[in-house]
Design brief:
- It is a single chain.
- The chain is of the alpha/beta class.
- The chain is built from 5 helices and 4 strands; from the N terminus they run H-E-H-E-H-E-H-H-E.
- It has a 4-stranded parallel beta sheet with strand order 1-2-3-4, covered by helices on one side.
- Helix 4 crosses helix 5.
């Protein structure tokens, strides 16, 4: 109950930032299906609510999200975004990814990112 109340307060604060133009879009990070359903229930209580545009999750070719989460987000029009699309570099050493890269004359990173894009997911990369 306390967690849902905190979620509602936080989400209202994000909506306020969006409504005043301080944020073009608002979203969540690391929300599973249950979390998304809790947020959906809270949003249904108010007519002026704004649903999340994106759910950023840890995702790469070796660690894909649960199919229920993918389907839920698709039904709701919420983009799934990988915040670690190369698995902290681990994907680059994957034998299968490297074999596919060689066959197509591409880098392992290109193959890994294209895989996510073909699945309909966005990705953001970071550098150290």
């Amino acid at each position: 109950c306390q967690g849902k109340r905190k979620l509602a307060e936080t989400w209202r604060a994000l909506e306020k930032q969006h409504k005043i133009g301080a944020a073009k879009a608002i979203g969540v990070s690391n929300f599973g299906v249950n979390d998304m359903q809790d947020l959906e229930s809270l949003l249904a209580l108010r007519k002026d609510s704004i649903k999340p545009a994106v759910n950023q999750i840890y995702m790469h070719v070796g660690c894909m999200p649960d199919s229920q989460l993918v389907e839920f987000c698709r039904r709701q029009g919420i983009l799934l975004e990988a915040y670690s699309p190369l698995g902290k570099g681990g994907v680059l050493g994957d034998q299968t990814v490297n074999e596919i890269a060689q066959i197509h004359s591409r880098t392992p990173a290109q193959i890994a990112l294209q895989y996510l894009a073909q699945k309909g997911h966005a990705f953001t990369s970071t550098s150290t």
